[in-house]
Amino acid sequence: MNTALIVGGGINGLCTARALTLRGWQVTVVEREPLPNPLSASWDHHRLIRSHYAGQPHYAGRMAQAYAAWDRLFTDIDARPYVARGVFALSRNAGDWTDIARAELASANMQHQIIPPEDLPKTLPMVESEGVRYALVTQDGGALLSDRIVEGLLRWLTARGVTLIPDCPVTQVDADTAMIQTARGSMQADRLIVAAGVGLPALNPWFAQNTHARRATVVYADPPAAYCAAWQNAPAWVDMGGQDDLWGIPPVAGLPLKLGYGLHTQPGDPETQRDVTPDDTATILNAYRGRLRDLDQYTPIKTVANFYLMAPSQDFVLRGQGRTLWLSADSGHGFKFGALTGEDAADAITGDWRIVATRLSGNPP
Ligand SMILES: Cc1cc2nc3c(=O)[nH]c(=O)nc-3n(C[C@H](O)[C@H](O)[C@H](O)COP(=O)(O)OP(=O)(O)OC[C@H]3O[C@@H](n4cnc5c(N)ncnc54)[C@H](O)[C@@H]3O)c2cc1C
């Protein structure tokens, strides 16, 4: 039986473990932290899945495959931790992010709907509609309940005989021999996949030179009573118009509303900057002023800081070296592709990694 070692128990490592297990490989996952790992980029109540992309048509073009891959995974784990509420984006200026995403959805013949400003008070009453040109809505997309997906995957992998080794930092990788050094000694397999997220730069000079960790903060909040009913049926959002990069997830599955603010995301150090400050919360809430009605009546519940690995052009990266694959399908938008990326990584192990690298990012490696 072929053997594989996987470094990293985030969504990409675990989905790769699943895909290889389904192909008859004997798999071991080595994780620096506990499993599940609450510090991983993949751990939160939810992650957004959406077909809206602007300037990245390659990723939009893979969304149908991404949804199909999640369906296969949900069948395996015998659960469907996904709330398909749909997704909206607002356009405030000609040529803004939403306008570009609209053109890309149209040219790819992907399902979408335009809501004119006069209909917004009825369909999205919690949104400040002044200055909005239109809302771009897709019926597909919504919230992947990421922590429940990770837990379901861990249960499935355990039941299928995958060896999971938590609390075991990998200190060194010999890519040619697929051997790793860990606190518990060395380990080796036929093939090695390193899907270590923000841990990649410490293990590989290419990632140290070409990628960086970014600190992203989100605020969980309860909406005012007057808007609760509207929020209970609302889609997620990926852009509130203009240059603000405001995204978020409505209350789903008994969870509070989640408010994200892309402009508050900055390069950061995952080892020292996990604490949140009152300033994080205030900055994010203030960014929604003039975007959400009656903003001062929202009650912040908790603020969370986490980190992801940014690669050039916000791309996904797959690099083959000897008997090792280095994988970062992240750049802040990787969870939605996790199930598909696992299948891709398994293809790369058994086939030509360069073809798969091109499939992942749209660019040759
Ligand atoms: C706040 C925030 C919001 C986001 N929102 C979205 C969203 O809405 N939609 C979306 O699609 N994506 C989103 N993303 C991005 C998405 O979460 C990531 O792309 C994805 O989770 C990356 O998964 P991963 O498995 O590559 O990395 P991770 O989940 O970080 O897993 C890597 C694992 O490797 C382990 N590791 C590191 N170094 C070592 C070592 N030396 N030895 C052993 N183990 C090691 C780590 O401990 C970690 O558990 C968001 C990210 C953040 C931070």
Task: Explain what this protein looks like in three dimensions.
With about 375 residues, the protein is of the alpha+beta class. It folds into two domains: about 5-45 and about 145-210 and about 310-360, FAD/NAD(P)-binding domain (3-Layer(bba) Sandwich), CATH 3.50.50; about 85-140 and about 210-310, D-Amino Acid Oxidase, subunit A, domain 2 (D-Amino Acid Oxidase, Chain A, domain 2, 2-Layer Sandwich), CATH 3.30.9.10. It is about 30% helix and about 25% strand. It is built from twelve helices and 21 strands. α3 (about 65-75) packs across α6 (about 145-160). It binds flavin-adenine dinucleotide (FAD). It comes from Pontivivens marinum. This is Sarcosine oxidase/sarcosine oxidase subunit beta. Pfam families: DAO.
Q: Number of helical runs?
A: 12
- Record the strand order, biggest sheet: 9-2-1-13-21-20
DSSP strand content:
25-35%
Largest sheet: 6 strands, mixed
Mean pLDDT: 97
Helix content range: 25-40%
What structural class do the secondary elements suggest? alpha+beta
Q: What distance lies between the first and last C-alpha atoms, to the nearest angstrom?
A: 30 Å
The CATH superfamily of the largest domain is identified as: FAD/NAD(P)-binding domain
**Count of the separate structural domains:** 2
The unreliable regions are none
Please identify the top-level CATH class of the largest domain: Alpha Beta
Domain FAD dependent oxidoreductase: 5-347
Protein name: Sarcosine oxidase/sarcosine oxidase subunit beta
Keywords: FAD, Flavoprotein, Oxidoreductase
InterPro entries: FAD-dep_OxRdtase (IPR006076), FAD/NAD-bd_sf (IPR036188), MTOX (IPR045170)
